[in-house]
Amino acid sequence: MLSYEQEIWPPSLPVWFTNLPYIVQAPVGLFVLSITLFLALIGYFLATAAWRIVKAYVLHNDGYDHIPQPQHTSKWWPLLGDLPQIRHAPPAEAHIAWARELNSEVYVYRAIFYIPRLIMADTKAMNYILGQQNSYNFPKPEQTRQFLDNLLGNGLLVAEGDIHRRQRKVIQPAFNVSAMRAFTPLFFRHSNAFVAKLAQLVDDTKGPAEEPVIEGQSVQSVRESQAKKPVFDISHWFARLTLDIIGDAGFDHRFDAVKLPIDEQHDSIVSSFRSLMKMVTSISITEILLINLRRIKGFAWTANIPTTRRRVIFNARASLDQIGKSIIETKRREIQAEMQEAKNSDGTYNEKAFFDEQEEIKGKAKDLLYLMMKANMAPGVRDSERMSDAELLGQITTLLTAGHETTSTLLTWFVHLTPLPENKHVITKLRAEIEEHFAGRDELDYDALMAMPYLDNCTKEVLRLVSPVVNTERTAVHDDVIPLSKSYKTKDGKSTFNSIVVKKDQLIFIPIQLINRSKNIWGPTADEFEPDRWDEIPKMAKETGFPSHILSFIEGPRGCIGNRFAIAEFKAIICTFLRSFDYDSAGWEIERKQGIVVRPRVVGQEELGTQLPIRLQKV
């Protein structure tokens, strides 16, 4: 008689399967197994969503029952939560609308499968979470860190805790004011080359045509062009300019993105980087399900499932790392030679000779990676404090991402906002200030560039109104109580709360754009582009404690280390651009599209991707 185990194993198989040729049984079996696992996962998510709904509406013990929540408007809310409202609105607009509707800067909305999302836009809460004392107690979520690590490597953007603290200590000197003074001529050199290229494109434009004649120009745009007044995508060219700048200033690499036509650009760094960015901006429903699956304990391994997207990212990173290793080794040899020259006769190091604040050789500033490596290799740095080569590789990809995408996007939004009828006076006033300060010169030094008050107002205002990154996330390392700046009404309106209890691993959503456009902070004109508001900063804005009273660069130890670099670069480009060109809207409706950063897109031309067509002419 068969034992119990023998009776149930192997399990009986369907007749149709056993009748298949043996050679096809394996692939068919894998397919059936995949479908079964997929349905099981869907079942798991549905059951989890049902349990969350029971806890919220029947048991009233999900921990969020007292916090204000927006009304669900989708008939699929048990499965999709409030995501349809978010997806159908421009980036960050749903979050802003909910905060104003609820009259609360702390609330909860529901994501897919009814996952709760705790929104924290209270300024005191932000200072608590992001500030010096608690920043490392609220790191990025594990899934986000893993994704960024796969994409960028373990650079400053990804590192947390002691690793981040150590990296920042070594990297910080590369971004000090002395370094920015040395980089400013580089910003102007590339900006002047940029406007010279655009001037050539303007001169070569004979009028409308049937086919694009300028890179970054669509058929629709070329048909709207006029003689010496081309219509083309300015965001395409700003991206090429900032790529050239970060290549040169970041690690002494010449991309020549502005100079060379795209079909003549064969730079491996550029092609690999673009492959990475494409994988970030194009994500399938399967990837969305996998991302949510990774949030479940025990399922982190699904991040290693060999998808096409994962393979492209792996190959691009491998290419970037190979090139990066060569760059690092070249700089290491250069620094080692300088270390030998800095030795005293007794073999000790002359710190002053080795470590002047910002070296210049033949009038050219050293690049950021060189400065990082020099600080990293300094004799006084303990081995335990030095960055590894893997960490240095991570800094290269981090520089490319943070130093290229965000600045070009900010420039693009500035050029979109300023030709609008209600903002035309901004260009007139700003151009007058620029001409007064330049006084016939081609460039300014860093201190003179920073001493232009209206330019500073415009820079802060575009950062406030259209921050390229609209939100970020943090998670609690341990149970905590987050203080709030005031008492908020509970969901039923019968009581108030002035703090939020968070549990270990609690996800906290930080809505940067909501905070920057808070009417409680900036008054009734918070949604408008008003550079003059910075002449008389509202009392509530001064009391936020944020850098420049906005959250675009985050704050605290995890704040953007390259904010000085980005601001000086932005100002140099805007000055050079406005001294050379007039520009106007192409006349099409522009919407915002969420990616790594928020970019403009023409309504009705969605198939062309993100773009900002403008009509350009010489001053």
UniProtKB/TrEMBL annotation:
<dbReference type="InterPro" id="IPR036396">
    <property type="entry name" value="Cyt_P450_sf"/>
</dbReference>
<keyword id="KW-0479">Metal-binding</keyword>
<dbReference type="InterPro" id="IPR002403">
    <property type="entry name" value="Cyt_P450_E_grp-IV"/>
</dbReference>
<keyword id="KW-0349">Heme</keyword>
<keyword id="KW-1133">Transmembrane helix</keyword>
<keyword id="KW-0408">Iron</keyword>
<keyword id="KW-0812">Transmembrane</keyword>
<dbReference type="GO" id="GO:0004497">
    <property type="term" value="F:monooxygenase activity"/>
</dbReference>
<keyword id="KW-0472">Membrane</keyword>
<protein>
    <submittedName>
        <fullName>Cytochrome P450</fullName>
    </submittedName>
</protein>
<dbReference type="InterPro" id="IPR001128">
    <property type="entry name" value="Cyt_P450"/>
</dbReference>
<keyword id="KW-0560">Oxidoreductase</keyword>
<feature type="transmembrane region" description="Helical">
    <location>
        <begin position="20"/>
        <end position="47"/>
    </location>
</feature>
<dbReference type="GO" id="GO:0020037">
    <property type="term" value="F:heme binding"/>
</dbReference>
<dbReference type="Pfam" id="PF00067">
    <property type="entry name" value="p450"/>
</dbReference>
<feature type="binding site" description="axial binding residue">
    <location>
        <position position="560"/>
    </location>
    <ligand>
        <name>heme</name>
    </ligand>
</feature>
<dbReference type="GO" id="GO:0016705">
    <property type="term" value="F:oxidoreductase activity, acting on paired donors, with incorporation or reduction of molecular oxygen"/>
</dbReference>
<dbReference type="GO" id="GO:0005506">
    <property type="term" value="F:iron ion binding"/>
</dbReference>
<comment type="similarity">
    <text>Belongs to the cytochrome P450 family.</text>
</comment>
<dbReference type="InterPro" id="IPR050121">
    <property type="entry name" value="Cytochrome_P450_monoxygenase"/>
</dbReference>
